[in-house]
Amino acid sequence: MPLKIEMSPESVRPVVICDQCGEPITEARDGNYQWQAPWEPGMSRKFVFFTHKGCNHAFEQARGGSGAWYAMELTELLPLLARGLEIDWDAAMRYAGLGNPDAG
Fold this sequence. Notes:
It is a single chain. The protein is an alpha+beta fold. The protein has a domain of 72 residues. The protein has 3 helices and 5 strands; from the N terminus they run ββββαβαα. Strand 1 and strand 2 form a beta hairpin. The protein starts with a strand and ends in a 9-residue tail after the last helix.
């Protein structure tokens, strides 16, 4: 799962890197997060990989074919992750310094 931190004098931000081509995924709509289908019914936790949508097919073929993988658009990842971690989205945005202090 290639999440990297990009640092500059002005900011520190996480960057998602494609597991196929090694380039950053800069638009959530252009990327997927993927995981391998379980081999056995009891296997419920799988590693997550990131791919550009254009790299998806090559990534899957290199690792056993498209029938063995599930994929969801990166746009869906943060809301699902926030729900799974019981994060209050508005509070998290304020905590990260990204919320609007003038809003409600």
